[in-house]
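Protein phosphatase 1 regulatory subunit 14D isoform A (Alligator mississippiensis), 124 aa
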Amino acid sequence: MANESSTLPRVTFQTPEKPEEESSHRKLGKLTVKYNRKDLQRWRDLEEWIDAQLQELYQYQEEAEAAVPEPEIDIEDLLEVPNDEQKSKLQEILHECSRPTEDFITELLSRLKGLRKIPSPQKK
């Protein structure tokens, strides 16, 4: 089979190049994006914690009611909102939950304080 794939005809598309653009197309470079690993790990840990807490809050509700969908909490959106509005935004997102959400909201807000918004990637 390996011989068959190497003998198959190949189709390539080439566009006519202008002389001044020729050098830029021929020079292929690598682009390395660097993120701060600690920030990414903290962000990931917080997302996993949120998912686990939401599953716990909504697990019994799904059995009792007609499958209320688990809400999505976007950390980036929360970090863009001023601190005093974060609590009301979370209460709005969780308003359909029949279980108490105050402890979850308080803990999430305290965890958000130590988290920074991940900046645009740094080019190396």
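Residues 37-114 form a domain with the DNA polymerase; domain 1 fold (CATH 1.10.150). The two ends are 41 Å apart (CA to CA). ok done for today
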